[in-house]
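Example A, followed by Example B.
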Amino acid sequence: MSDWSLWLKSLHIMAFAAWMAAMWYLPRLMVYHVDKVVGGDSSETFKIMERRLLKGIATPAMILTFVFGIWLAIVQNQFSDGWLHAKLLLVLLLAGCHGFLAGQVRKLARDERP
């Protein structure tokens, strides 16, 4: 394995760690948010926090995870490996979860509560 591959793998893991941290924290913010009065100061603060977490950390980290992961697979010529196909399926499920949470953030921003 070349030094280049090790750098890509490190960047991929760091981006994934940031993405997962945001994905774990975002639902927690939403749980606190739904308890707040619609239109109140704390509700507006939670809207800002959720938007910044999603657009400032989670989505960029997801994109970087994809970019570094695909780049790493190209450099190491791993697209024919079966384990990578299974991993890509799991990554697509995580991306779907990310999309679901983004939709919930949009609903909360419009003051729609479950």
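Example B, a separate protein, is given below in the same form.
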Amino acid sequence: MPFRDTEVARQLQVFGFAHLRRAAQDAVVGLEHGFERLIRLPSDGRPEERVTEFDILTGLPALGSVARSAWVRGICEAYFGRRHRVITSDANALVGDSYWHSDGFYNTPFLRFVLYLDDTTRDTGALRFLPGSHRADNGWTGDPTRHVIRHREDLGLAGGDVPAVVVESRPGDVIVFDTNVMHAAWHGDVRRQLAFNCVGEPETEAEQLDTRRYFLNRYVSGSVLIG
């Protein structure tokens, strides 16, 4: 791989996200076929709203292989400082915008690995991030986060005009981010997305509680609709 685990972990610590170009290039064909089995798109290719399937690693061996790869393990262990586990996985046919949000500000860090099966650009729904917004020591909790979420009322900006880093990607790329980081996607039509979420093996009661909450929130809270 053209990246080092420790360098990626450092990017995640400082900025909250990293772009791993071609990291899953060898898996693209299997991912394409697996997605077609999991999610049947309408004949015109455009569902009316987001379609999601959960717990897909068993039914999509190509993604399971990515999740078990040595480089995923290396990044997670470098970031968490311990062994890790995959706690959720999902396949999504995303439609339209994804508004500014984090997946919940947890004291326990979680990583989300995202693979798109379509090219994404700033004009077609690429992920975008506010660097460092996952870190409470940067002052992001509270009013700053609310101002971004209320960008039109508080900042006078459309969501796509909030200054951010846009991560354009191609099939085979992997985008990994700390789920506390503020992120969004704007101007997108339909894009096929596969993802899995990881956490360090919980060592305290608080970490166990956060992990249970995070797992449940992926299924039952509104965050999964825009994550």
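On Example B: Residues 222-227 have pLDDT under 50 and may be disordered.
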